[in-house]
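pasting input
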Amino acid sequence: MNGFMDQLTAFLYAAILASVPLLYGTLGEILSQKAGNLNLGVEGMMYLGAVAGFLAGYHTNSLVLTLLLGMAAGAFGAAIYALLTVALKANQNVTGLTLTIFGTGIANFLGEQAKLNAPMGTVFLSNELKALLSPIRVAGLSDLPFIGPLLFHHSILTYLAILCGIGMSLYLKRSHLGMNLRAVGENPAAADAMGIPVNLYKYVHILVSGALSGLGGVYISMVTASGNWQPNIISGQGWIAIALVIFASWKPLRAILGSLVFGALSVLRLYIPKDLIDIPSAFFSMLPFVVTSLVLVISSIRMKRENQQPASCGINYFREER
Amino acid sequence: MRRTLPQMHIVQRSDIKPLNAWGYRLLAVLFALSMGGLFLLILGYNPFDVYATMLRGALGSAGMQKETLKLTIPLALTALGILLAFKMKFWNIGAEGQIAAGAIAASYFAYFHADLPKTVLLLTMAAAGFVAGGFWGLIPAWFKTRFGTNETLFTLMLNYIIYYFITYLREGPWRESVGGFAAMPRFPKQARLPEIPFPFVGNLHLGWVVLLVMMVLVFIYLRYTKQGYEITVVGENERTARYAGMPVKRIILRTMFLSAGIAGLVGMLQVSGPDRQLTDSVGGGRGFTAISIVWLARLSPFGSVAVAFLFAILQKGSSMMQTEYRIPASMSDILQGIILFCVLGAEFFLQYRILKRKEVAA
Amino acid sequence: MQFTPAIQLIRLTKCFDSVTACDCIDLDVRRGEILALLGENGSGKTTLTNMLSGIYQPDAGQILLDGKPVIIRSPRDAIRQGIGMIHQHFKLVEVMTARENILLGQQSLIKTNPEDAVKAFGLKVGLNKKVYDMSVSEKQTVEILKVLCRGADKLILDEPTAVLTPQEIQSLFDTLHAMRKEGKAIIIITHKLEEVMAVSDRVTVLRKGVNVGTVGTGQTDRFSLTEMMVGQAIDLDVKRVETPPGQPLLRLDKVSAEDDSGRTLLKDISFTLNQGEILGVAGVAGSGQKALCEIIAGLENPSGGTITLDKQPINGLSPREIIKRGISMAFIPEDRLGMGLVGGLNIPDNLLLKTYRDQKGFFLKRKPARLEGEEMIRKLKIVTPGLNVKIRKLSGGNVQKVLLGREINLSPKVLITAYPVRGLDIGASMTIYDMLNEQKRKGVGILFVGEDLDVLISLCDRILVLCAGKVSAIVESQFATKALLGMKMTGLKTDKEDEYA
């Protein structure tokens, strides 16, 4: 029995670890869509964040620079997207997809470049730097049975992600700025007529959304890949994050739950005893994507007015449109 | 007198001539290449040398031209497939998975029915590839028509699902142990595409004929048939299509089947032509690249083939760049991204005009 | 003169592509005055006011507020300058409540809280109601509140009466008069003459983007205003063509419908449409007109009841199946480019929409459609640079001619039209009425969904009034008055209930 509890704790703990990058990506995309911009470039922005953070850590050994550059790189990708879709009114779908191609290319390029220039042909981060992102014990709480090690023994990036989720929920629901933002995403013409600077709102939130995705990327290269650069390091997590936005029906708090579920799915393979269920590991790897598809289908079947995509999401706004 | 109007503002325009529009786009591409050059410069390379190497690597000899054409075939054919769906404003970004589905189905016949006569076997493989790809595309299309399920994400998820399915085949039932690595066996001779001469470059697998035929077919289909007309109307305005009594759902399903079927055919051509076995990289990012191609070609079948050729030069050239300069080949993705960004930006100037104020005395 | 106008426009000009929407327009409004801006559709009224509210940037000219020249770069600037714009197409966030909609934007600009404003002007609206649950007149009230709470002293109302019943119009005018008394400067845009006469102090008339003159309302009359507006003295009367009573053609019996979320759209609709008759449909916007048309046309399925066309039941049949039974029905939907036509295609390709399926074989023959198109351009005097022009580029009136022309060429037995003259100028409107009357003479049964009660009364033989998805009355036009129709539209009972039943 004890063995089972240990196993369960380990599984849930791993699920939380795996959920963090998804949560960053999802929160970022929620913010962007609330501003009326569907950004299919989450995967690309995560790549940018991952490689920038990684290289910053590799060269400077500074956690602050790692995080800052990771966020800045994500925001840089978002800035390209924002410039094209907001200022130049380019098609949001194509721009987002291009951002993914671009970000993937840059990350693989720079990572490979670093490897080619490294003495042993491998690049990894120092243990001191990784230690800074390792789990922190919270005095008292961490020693509680079961929930102690499960909930109060995490990296700062994990706590930060949860805080972002809660903060964003409050922002959207309770604050005046959040209300204005929702108006921008629902009906930019109405927002504009009320004197809300629509484009400014879009720029700011798209940039923040990029920074969040970038942070998710940093987490993947620093924690998930334990500081060891590999090509194609994000491998579809950005896309799952976008699907999670639908799963969470554009609500940050539900995004926390959703990313946990998908985190659990992605680590399930390692924790299901072989004597219980013995299916090829490829099917386990497939699982998050299968479930995401199911989520897409199910959420399209039961649609409620309040739980939908912001009405003008995906459509660019031009004030003088006739 | 005080100025009483802002200096500049943006207005819509509709008077741009097609030729000028292409001029703008060309400028954008040149601008993009110079941005890429700047990037190379920052990394410490001479961009002119690098670009020259790329061109040489892609077109320098008959052998290289042949390799470039080998890359063009799947890219262009995938683009033709995607084009059908995009014309209907159906965001099929799952061509990669549809290629894989076609490849698996074709491989099944190659592995297990190699006793058939060669022509029969190849035709069966092609048909199986088309149908399997088409079926893989029908799944999201059906859910889209039935429940309005978001096709963008669904088609993309199906890419990953089929990818891991190939992994399963490789590690499981279709595994052939070669020195400890899990891999799939090579195709028997029977199941390999014949090669026929392509002007100037020598023998090239049959895919190029398929591509040229398909290019003409897609053009005629969209331009001159009732079904093509239906695709245009549904793409332009689904409500009008329904109002006019068009069977919109059937049109979406049919078109998606064709779109994904062509991608499936690409899968068959890849495994049976250059690859000669099933691998998990059969999709190889072609789904995304094909979207860029179709978009840059403004949904024109001939244009898509031309742009695909240019992208193939980019890809082939990048691998040459890697061997000569040790610049990672993902440079081609970066350039592809920059080119698209620039052309996307340039579209703005085709649709809008920035007006400078002329002062009018009050 | 010693007064300073609250709003003064000097030679304001705005072009779109090659069209000059406003050409050197001068205009002024004083405090405590209601100025009516009168003009046909397409005369530049909305463009002009959009420049005042910061939506459009003028190409040239000057705006003076309270005597001071200003630059209005955005709606935000306009609000700061005390300009309040009430747009014809409401600018409201559907999923938010009235209060949220009112409070949107910069908080410091809110001068009065919504509750106080509601009280001060005696308005009726639930501040906690979601906009998507509101009627059109409630939505308009919210729009007015948005402006009032920001303390605007210069109000612009763009076609505010288009969607209201006569009674609601009256109460809107009362509100406007109350605001005038407070010293606000008000511009009201309209193309309805009697509203001009009823509410305004002065009238400025626009024609084809040019200010053709400003007159005191007391010193003018409907005829001279018409002449100013249209440029010639024309007979504005829509005529009813008398035809012998015909056989019943289309019969609805207790037809009901619901939307996806189960809300009632139509409830127990019953009526008969006869040959050679125009049956008008009146009602407040959103009373079920759209559902009614689309159900008859076979685009939506009724949840109950029967529809018979030419003695054949057509319930639940798709448009295609209806055509297959050899019963010809034409439908001119209200959203011409959104539903009836494809804006990105040229004229022949649009003409093919309903007939291409009758062609044999796999390939599409465009030749017949080209010929049909050429003939249509000639017969209906469609103004177009050519056959191959994308239909989106044509003006509203020409677009409507193509649509109506195509539908009439199907030689329908029943013609359903929804708001066929919306957005058209007077000349084009008259052509459309003539075309409908011609069809009526041929024995076609016409269902005419309209919004202008005067037109409905003079064009139609009978008028069916819809109220909240139900038939609240079917009235012979000769006995119909606007007041009566208005009351029926809002579901009020009249003493003479039985007389018209």
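fyi The longest strand of chain C covers residues 19-29.
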